[in-house]
Specification:
This protein is an alpha+beta fold. A 6-stranded antiparallel beta sheet has the order 2-1-22-21-20-19, with no helix packed on it.
Length: about 675
Amino acid sequence: MKNYKNHFKLLLIMIAMIMMFPANTYAADAYKTYTISIDGEEIKTQTAYEAVGILSNDQMIKPENLFIDLNDNIYVADSGSKEIIVFNKYGKLVRTIGKGILEKPVGISVGVGNKLYVADVIKEKVYCFSSEGKLLAEYGKPDSPLFGKGQPFKPLKLSVDVRGNMYIIGEGAANGIIQLNKDGEFLGYFGANRASTSFYQTFKNYIMSKTGVRKGFMNVPIASTGIDIDSRGIVYTVTNGLDSEAIKKLNVAGSNMLSDGVYASNSAIDIVVGNQGNFYVLSSNGYIYEYDSTGNLLFKFGSKESNAQRQGIFKQPSGISVDTKGYLYVADAEQGIIHIFEPTEFTNKLHQGLSYFEEGLYVKSQKYWQDVLQLNSSFSLAHIAMGQAYYKQQEYSESLNEFKLAKNKEGYSQSFWEIRHKLMEKHTGTLLTFVILGIFVYYIVRYLNRKKDYFKGIKIAFNRFKNIKLVSELFLLFKLFRHPIDTFYEIKKLKKASVISATIFYLLFFIEYLISLKFTGFIFNTELLERFSLFLIISIFFGALALFVIMNYLISTINDGEGSFKNVYIGTIYSLAPYLVFSIPVTLLSRMITINESFLFTFTTQIMICWSLLILFIMIKEIHNFTIGETIKNILLTLFSCVITIVVLFVLYILLNQVIDFVYSVIQEVMIRV
């Protein structure tokens, strides 16, 4: 009993000690790192950056933005203390700048000669200081008529190029980034975002313009929220609230060099360029995104919690910067601190490979990408880089495999062209010999057959085979290419096709469709079989055919069409004769051509589909004995009926689900109460 009392006293003492001397609330990393898989989905990967420290100071209250120069000095725009706080690379306070001058500094950049440029949103000015803190110049609203008399000038973020030109993001600056030269003269707007172009917004603009509403109330582009400029003068921007082109990499003409498919957050607030041509984007929801120079996502990591105070966890992220060693610094305005992230060994290997890759030294980068793939085999950029390395070494088969793993069709096409070129060089002579020999044998046999008719027995046997009822019904398909009208007359009046032959063709149609999905060349493959279940594909395929046949028959019946349901069922599949005959050859063609010859695949596919639709039009006209106008009307009503039926079935499906859920809930309630 005495031992229990002693243990209880010890526990009380420990609790009291914890309360008197609380531990540091900053703990280990509490976030996961993601990348984009080869299939374009987010997947977890090795930790890319570890939170290794906190930069804080009694004078720093609300850091809004930060900038790190080439000497790793850290400049912090602090709206709480109304000054710029400067730390050296060791995190030691060096000086403060702008006391008594600045009111609310929210943007900062360092230009040529270590001149410090500060955006003050309250003073509506950009201030220029020397590295020692002396005020050199201040720039207010441009007086140029090109700027616009009614346009506000409330600078939020800015960046300065090597010529001293200022690129300023202003609050409500819908016309784009404000450009000022080193003397503060207005140069123009740059890289404006596009306004919403949805159908609703277009209709709204039209109504407003007709009713005389001022343009100020119409939709305008969203102003950018973050900016940075690299050493080559390329401007990077992010825009909070955009779903398309939220991240831009602008050339000197103001055109975006990134594709529309960049994986991005619509809550991006700041951007900074890295040391290997990569760049980082900070979002308001606490995530940091790292991209390569072309916009491929490398990593996504971070977290935001309003009630936590942990190392690497943000409350109100406001700015991001990177030093020469690749360490990331993220300002947290609410906590009044700066989080420091160190790249892991995995990230350093990737950055080293990326550095060589950006310089075009693919072979030299290969060993680094091999290390990356050993740690994460789903890293698509590593597969692309490996493919480029193999390509440079003329190892085209290995290159082909790497590009296929990365689903990079351009690289795959280049490697395939090289392989095909080598095969053609090696075997063209042999192939031509066989072709010429085959033609020669054909004409010899044809000549001899005219003299003696050696193949008379084969012809008789073949004709007997063709006269079998089912076989003749199947061979009727080929007559459609020469005489479609006569063929549908024979189907309708002479009964030369049956439900059995039509069903065989429906099954053949589906088999050919599956073959095309599975074996179409990688460059042209939609990968539907990989993305959807076979059951779903079968359901949609036969459901669509059945719906068309039923709706067409019903609509035709209402409009005095002469065709029976059997005629429509048979005629529909016979109308698809071009697809049934040419689908397999087109699929084989797709495996033998590159992107440069893609028009061959596209053109033949379009011809095959258009030809089938033309025959389908003729079928509806002849089967139901319609005029051309009546046929067009019938087709439109059929399609409309199909759409309505799908909508009704979808609504019934939702209602049925709700009924089932309700019944299940009632049963559960009864079981619990009983």
